[in-house]
From TrEMBL, chains A, B:
Pfam families: Amino_oxidase (PF01593). Substrate binds at residue 352. It comes from Echeneis naucrates (Live sharksucker). The chain crosses the membrane at residues 6-24, 188-207. This is Amine oxidase. The gene is si:ch211-127i16.2.
Length: 534, 534
């Protein structure tokens, strides 16, 4: 077996790896860059597919689909590649079902669900506490967060049990965790949860589909185009599909990367695959124990996404937005749905089955349960669909889960520094290593850029500006006293906001039994308290 | 590449794999059994080595070393193989250092540490609560434990924060967790902790070195002999060292097992390696998602073991047992030490550096810090040692950690059934899959037996007795209503014990400020409350 020689090998042809390759090429066209990918396609956790629809065939995303206006890294890339975005439709009444199969199905119009007064107060209070904690989190080095050990020693579930008062809010948080992470609140460190929210600018941006939040825009033609365009720029001859990396050896001169059939030599490697897959690669010399302990403890979520197409968007005609939110206590397998009508007008809904619920149903039962839930919440028209398309990301080879790997308790304070720290010629990227919108497509792009700059600093430092060289140094020196204790995105609630929140709480408490006045309070809370913090 | 044909292939030549092979051979001598091992030795997490000592060279264990009289599976094997055990020396004063570098170093003679009265009461109360919970745990199917979801949604740390009152007890629990699991209390599910203790008959048996506990006996000549004798019985020609399994394919007729250089076909496979290593093997068809999610969330502990030899056991001459217990708050890297004088009289100490502390020191600093700690606690003679031998199990290839994999929160209630559930021709063993003394050598032996019986039930059911066939069915049908809600070993505290504990608590509270009377209370607590429950 003779080895091909390259300058840089990138493991994984998702957004992170291809963006790293793209940046390397842009800075130094002479660099020989090879991207190795286990799957038979580019895009990683983004994949777009043709689905039968009202006017023939149309295209939908079965993986990552949304971007938001504070996600600067992905927005710049979208602009550079000449792609277009369009708003997530969210006009009309939303449906909420919590508290068991027999509980009342409620509708609401605000971005905050139709919570009962007590739950709303509970939610406001909890949100205020979590956002205050978020503001103290050091995303770059979470061990520097005040009280880090304690926050990392408990699960999100334990925090909620201690600080939420109402059963409904606890159920809501479970739903949010499933929708955002594909996981239960019991499975992640509370400090990790705070770090993740801080990297997005607060908790609400993770949950909403309003301006600045995670579910704001979609990409016309689908998100997989981003990776396809990048592969085009990098050159398809430099992207090998069906080439899963099995081992990486390093010596004084070379890194040697092997797949089942080939061997490659190079000067630097960027590993971009999710931590649980990076952990399956054989490394020689072995990686530092801390790195191994870290990647062995970053479970990936379980998310099943479905797209269901219709002749027309009957929900809109009924004044519904298409958004349904259901708790695990109901008999619906759905966590959340949204309108997914295409820019060319083909009516569709998109939905997610996530966390524990994704393991509870067989494929056939699940489909039947999804349809009957849609009928229950949107009306009998939901049964007359054109096509039901589903993707269980746990079953996707070289993904094994979606949307993101979280951290179990007790990791961030001990092992976190090894998340981004290069090991010799090995550099680490992937959305899990991002410090802004970690876990999202934007984080993938940021992490690819950061790793590319690290490699350039090693192989051709002259291609970097002074600022970039300093940024690389700062990233490599996490733990230095100069570190800022907060993400630049972090939505710092001011003292004023805190005072407003407390006042609102008192007022809301007073109004608990006055339903008419309550609607105004809700609107006020939504506009004044929530919007100001993001 | 032509494939060799075998009946059964066993992945891993530790106690579990070799015991499975041994049992298969005993039941059906015609079965062609091959054991594949990545390391260049047998024994897995047991390894014995020659170390310079007072009278020349002697042999010590650098991995698993203790057995106890309730560990029936390993005791039967020891007997069958004709090996001998000897008691762990524990006569004399023990040293305890908790509460920071400047806290008083205390000594005590009982099996329970020299706790202050308030801490002793706190400990009694906590132990009583934990043992009561242990008695409710269904080891075979932890999701059947009352309140399972809640117990599995919190870390051990969170439980201790809620239920222990004194800072010293919290520090003690940290020390116990490090010593038993090589891990911090923040890193494991509280339900997992309860299950682990229940599988050992309660919490105290995990911690003590008295009759029936985990640290009762050692094996003359070392524990690796067990695996070496088993390999002898199985036939060394059937054990291939340096043969790490990289992939397992299954079709209707065969399982195909590959290493870097060879391919084997067989009818059944038993995978015995620790879960985080089993997760690195490539499986086709892919394993069920639940199994993948489980093994991705079972972190292994970090344990460094040292043996230090001396001209004479100077600690005994001073009336000390050699047992030192130090908290993470002190400047000592040691979690715990014991006398390790060999049966032929070569003086030695054995000690453990575990959990977070195992990551904090470089090898050179650590050795210096260990010696200076021994000098501090045992006297200046500790500096004049013959030899210092150390093993960092995190750096051992095809182990990557020791002594055991735990479960992070949120797993037992969702994914646990896949721990032992066969996947086609694939069967799972290893101490993590045991239901009695899970995590110990005895658990490894039990799990190997269970997996061997599963394979026999498939390949040659006539070799099984009726009881064995039923046992296999019971094990495969975890979740059936006939399941007993408690391990047979579980030390059920009776109502009487509970009453005694409450009475003792009241008495102890009364005696808090009467130090003379306190010694009697301690002895009483130790004899009446603790011993009765195990």
């Amino acid at each position: 077996m003779t080895a091909e020689i390259w300058d840089v090998i990138i493991v994984g042809a998702g957004l992170s790896g291809l963006n790293a390759a793209h940046l390397l090429k842009k800075r130094n066209a002479k660099l020989r860059i090879l991207v190795l990918e286990g799957k038979d396609r580019v895009g990683g956790r983004t994949v777009s597919t043709n689905i039968p629809a009202a006017n023939g065939i149309d295209r939908w995303d079965l993986g990552g689909q949304w971007v938001g206006s504070t996600q600067t890294h992905i927005l710049e890339l979208i602009k550079e590649l000449g792609l277009e975005t369009f708003l997530q439709f969210n006009i009309g009444k939303k449906v909420l079902h919590m508290g068991g199969p027999d509980a009342r199905v409620r509708t609401y119009r605000t971005s905050i669900p139709a919570l009962s007064p007590a739950v709303l107060i509970d939610f406001t209070h909890l949100l205020w506490k979590i956002d205050r904690l978020c503001a103290t989190v050091c995303v770059q080095d979470p061990s520097k967060t005040p009280n880090a050990v304690e926050l990392d020693s408990m699960t999100l579930h334990s925090y909620i049990e201690q600080h939420a008062w109402t059963a409904e809010l606890k159920e809501e948080i479970g739903l949010c965790t499933r929708s955002v992470f594909g996981m239960e609140p019991s499975q992640m460190s509370f400090l990790f949860f705070l770090m993740y929210a801080a990297a997005a600018g607060g908790l609400l941006p993770l949950l909403e589909n309003t301006a600045g939040s995670a579910q704001e825009f979609k990409i016309r033609g689908g998100t997989q185009q981003l990776s396809e365009c990048l592969a085009e720029h990098v050159g398809w001859k430099n992207v090998r599909l069906g080439s899963a990396v099995t081992a990486i050896w390093q010596d004084a001169e070379w890194a040697r990367v092997t797949t089942a059939t080939d061997t490659f030599l190079c000067r630097a490697v960027i590993v971009t695959c999710p931590p649980h897959l990076a952990a399956k690669i054989h490394y020689e010399p072995a990686l530092p124990s801390q790195r191994e302990f870290l990647t062995q403890n970053m479970p990936v979520g379980h998310m099943i996404k479905f797209i269901i197409t219709y002749q027309k968007a009957f929900w809109k005609e009924k004044g519904l937005s298409g958004e349904i939110v259901t708790g695990a206590s109901t008999d619906s397998p759905i966590a959340v749905t949204f309108d997914a009508t295409s820019p060319s007008g083909n009516a569709a809904l998109v939905g997610f089955i996530a966390g524990q619920q994704a393991s509870q149903w067989t494929s056939k039962e699940r489909r039947r349960a999804v349809i009957s839930s849609l009928v229950k919440y949107l009306g009998p028209e939901a049964a007359s669909f054109i096509h039901y398309e589903e993707k269980d990301w746990a079953k996707e080879e070289y993904s094994g889960g979606c949307p993101v790997n979280v951290m179990a308790p007790g990791l961030l304070t001990y092992y976190h520094p090894s998340l981004r720290k290069p090991c010799g010629r090995l550099h680490w990227a992937g959305t899990e290593t991002a410090t802004q919108w970690c876990g999202y497509m934007s984080g993938a792009v940021q992490s690819g850029q950061r790793a590319a700059l690290e490699v350039l600093a090693e192989l051709c430092p002259m291609t970097l500006t002074q600022e970039e060289q300093e940024a690389v140094q700062r990233s490599l020196n996490v733990g230095s006293p100069a570190q800022q204790p907060s993400s630049t995105l972090s939505g710092l609630p001011t003292r004023k906001t805190a005072v407003v929140a407390v006042l609102m709480l008192s007022a809301a408490l007073f109004l608990v039994h006055r339903p008419n006045a309550l609607l105004k309070v809700k609107a006020y809370l939504t506009n004044v308290v929530f919007k100001k913090t993001v």
